[in-house]
Amino acid sequence: MNTHKSAGENITVVDATLRDGGIVNNFYFPQGFARALYEADKAAGVDVMEFGYKVSKKLFNVSEFGEWKFCEEGSLRAVVGDKPEKSPKIAVMSDVGRVDLHTEVLPKEQSVIDMYRIATYVRQTEEAAEMINFCHDMGYATSCNIMAISRESEGDLKRCVETICKTPVDVLYIVDSFGSLYEDDIKHVCELYGEAAYKYGKQLGIHAHNNQQLALANTIAAMNAGATWLDATVSGMGRGAGNAFLEGLLGYLRSPRYNINPVLVFIREHINPLKASGVEWGYDVPYLLTGLNGIHPYAAIDFEHDRRTDYENFLAEITAEGYVAPSHR
Amino acid sequence: MNTHKSAGENITVVDATLRDGGIVNNFYFPQGFARALYEADKAAGVDVMEFGYKVSKKLFNVSEFGEWKFCEEGSLRAVVGDKPEKSPKIAVMSDVGRVDLHTEVLPKEQSVIDMYRIATYVRQTEEAAEMINFCHDMGYATSCNIMAISRESEGDLKRCVETICKTPVDVLYIVDSFGSLYEDDIKHVCELYGEAAYKYGKQLGIHAHNNQQLALANTIAAMNAGATWLDATVSGMGRGAGNAFLEGLLGYLRSPRYNINPVLVFIREHINPLKASGVEWGYDVPYLLTGLNGIHPYAAIDFEHDRRTDYENFLAEITAEGYVAPSHR
Question: What's the pTM?
Answer without folding.
Answer: 0.96
